[in-house]
Amino acid sequence: MDQDFVEHYRREGYAVVRGVFGAEDVAALRGAFDRIHARALAYGRSFRHQNVFYRLAQWCAYFDETLARYRTDERMRRIVEPLIGGDVKQIINQLHWKTPGAAHVEFGYYQDVRFRRPRSAYRALATAYVQTGIAVDAHRAENGAMTLVPGSHRRGELDFGAGGQVLDQAKSAADLARAGLDASRLVDLVLEPGDVALWNVFLVHGSGPNRTDRERRFYLNGYVRAADCDRGEWAFRGGRACALGAPVLVHYEELHERPEPHYVDG
Ligand SMILES: O=C(O)CCC(=O)C(=O)O
């Protein structure tokens, strides 16, 4: 794999590795997205079973073999290892849909660091953590591609209004201006199916609604150097893929007190 993406990632805070996955892989992932979507519709409300959470469809890799396979795919290891090494845990496993007509599914500008909690569980976030996304469909501005500010990761943690909501919020140039960022520098993350995007935990980004009649699906996996994180599922150990077993603490604080499946209000 061409290593140019490493340099681009360090300089700009993001990179795209083109054509990592082929048509067969993309078809397998589309099938997985369809299966999870059907289950989510059947639940009809937010639903949790241990780390599996149906709102943003989190951690479906525990039960879906296809999603499990790609979270530790050798091609993902080769992208992640030059950045954070061969002993890697995972703290994000998430499916994002922007279905045609779901005009409210959008993300206001923010930095992922905001959700890396509790902070005490993470060390050296800027260099220890990398978020990745596999494009399952083509991503364009019109169908809700991510928009980002290149180089903004160098600004550290910025103030986007502490505690404010991110999901279902429109991208706002005023938010960027308040954080001292220049909206004219924004870049759309244009992806083809099978491309892998990666971005830094401090990179400022958001994404708009899908205004087209085409799907926009994105398979997100967030990895962290194991030595710098007290949470997460092992993904690679000594450069070898690790399967998921009994769930460990990631974000769901009541994992051990309330492990049974249940609907979640709100
Ligand atoms: O799916 C999207 O467009 C947003 C992704 C994103 O902002 C994230 O997961 O950090």
Overview features:
4-stranded antiparallel sheet, 22% helix, 7-stranded antiparallel sheet, 6 helices, binds 2-oxoglutaric acid, alpha+beta
Structure description:
Helices cover 22% and strands 24% of the residues. The chain is of the alpha+beta class and 266 residues long. It has one domain (4-244): q2cbj1_9rhob like domain (Jelly Rolls). Strands 1-9-6-11-4-12-13 form a seven-stranded antiparallel β-sheet. Strands 5-10-7-8 form a four-stranded antiparallel β-sheet, with no helix packed on it. The longest helix is centred in the N-terminal third of the chain and has 21 residues, at 23-43. It starts with a helix and ends with a strand. The mean pLDDT is 93. 2-oxoglutaric acid is lined by residues 96, 107, 112, 131, 146, 205, 207, 218, 220. 2-oxoglutaric acid (AKG) binds next to strand 10 and strand 11.
State the fourth-level CATH superfamily. Answer: q2cbj1_9rhob like domain
CATH fold-type name: Jelly Rolls
Shape: globular
* Fraction in beta strands: 15-25%
| Poorly predicted residue ranges | none
Tally of structural domains: 1
- Unique ligands: 2-oxoglutaric acid
Q: Pairing-aware structural class of the strands and helices?
A: alpha+beta
